[in-house]
Amino acid sequence: MRPVSFIANNQIDLLQSGAAYFPALIEAIDGASDEVYLETYIFAADATAMQVLQALKRAAARGVTVRVITDWLGTGREHTAFLKQEFHNTAISHRVFNPWFIRGVVRTHRKICVVDKSIAFVGGINIIDDMFTDDAKRLPLIAPRWDFSVRVSGPLVGRIHTELESQWVRMGKFKLLARWHVFKDTYQTHTKARVRTGRGPVLAGLVIRDNFRNRRTIQRAYMQALGHARNSALMTSPYFAPGRKLRQAMVSAAQRGVKVTLLLGVGHYSLQDAVTKSYYPKLLKAGIKIVEYRKTALHAKVAVIDAKWATVGSSNYDGLSLLVNQEANVVIRDAEFANVLRQRIEAGINDGVEIQPEKFINTPWRQRLYYGAAFFIYRFAMRVITMGNRK
């Protein structure tokens, strides 16, 4: 497995939900003097998203180069058209990822922003208000969506900027030779990052998933961390349907005596919940603790393993994130950061409902049949989407 390319001497700040994230993002954009790159799956039409839009407009009006990437499916066809019109009337450049599925089913599920090559944001938070669901219905939530991002300053920002800049160029119209130069520059950045690995605070690396050089990079990062785990693993995801290898890594860790806890989101999609529950019997049998978060929408994709390994990003533990979509996580090796994130996850666990193995075993057979049917539907769909390449 290719290791994560850690870079030393970074400042990483954890931002929980929109209440912390959007003020920090808007402040950074308002302070921009050179350029802003923003990539997001959802750019909504609510008041919070419009505040970000206005900040981008203000930056462009000051002469800052502003480039925005939105996903066609995540943002929606009609709102994508609205954004294109809004951006057209300014100096903001806007590119839409995979409109009308012309590149197949792949989506950009990444949430990244880089300002002046000095500040970066990476995580799971879309440009959408915390108090509404992130589906087409946009229903009100009883409490703010539970999600995280990180604000990064230091050498790692250069790596994140290169990735965003490369994504922008790849989405444009340019010749094969230009594409080769983008690939070469990105590869050289990876190599330099490995050379710059050090021991100073804070060690962090960008881990991306695409369908070219990084098909299983995020999954492998999790598997490596679980393989070296000795004490505990707290893992959080709104959608849970991992492949066999990642499931086995969780089970193996638990069987070695590692306290593995899964904090999972439920209640958004009933079919997804059924797929998730189809995995419970074997996980519970292995001694893995499963907690369902029901307080509000859980959208966080975070984990803390042992005392100092942590990750915050956009990748769920399901086939779409691990095998299809473009994703981005930051992996951090720092005890102080890991402890802060651990406390936030433990607070989420305290707000959740633990699945008791003895009660789950007594689930009515009709319900168990539904879980099994949902799993086979999901597995068939993933085999079609990935052309059978799901390991």
From TrEMBL:
Primary localisation category: membrane
Enzyme class label: transferase
Membrane topology, record value: Peripheral membrane protein
Domain of life, per lineage: Bacteria
E.C. code: 2.7.8.-
Reactions this protein catalyses: 2 a 1,2-diacyl-sn-glycero-3-phospho-(1'-sn-glycerol) = a cardiolipin + glycerol
Gene Ontology MF terms in the entry: cardiolipin synthase activity
Parts of the chain that traverse the membrane: none
Keyword Zinc-finger on entry: no
One GO BP: cardiolipin biosynthetic process
UniProt domain PLD phosphodiesterase: residue ranges: 104-131, 294-321
Any one GO CC term of the record: plasma membrane
A UniProt-annotated Pfam family: PLDc_2
Subcellular location: Cell membrane
Record's keyword annotation contains tRNA processing: no
Residues of the active site: H109, K111, D116, H299, K301, D306
This protein's UniProt keywords: Cell membrane, Lipid biosynthesis, Lipid metabolism, Membrane, Phospholipid biosynthesis, Phospholipid metabolism, Transferase
Entries under PROSITE patterns matching the protein: PLD (PS50035)
Classification via PANTHER family: CARDIOLIPIN SYNTHASE, PHOSPHOLIPASE D
The family this protein is said to belong to: Belongs to the phospholipase D family. Cardiolipin synthase subfamily. ClsB sub-subfamily.
Function, as annotated: Catalyzes the phosphatidyl group transfer from one phosphatidylglycerol molecule to another to form cardiolipin (CL) (diphosphatidylglycerol) and glycerol.
Protein name (database record): Cardiolipin synthase B
Organism of this sequence: Glaciimonas soli
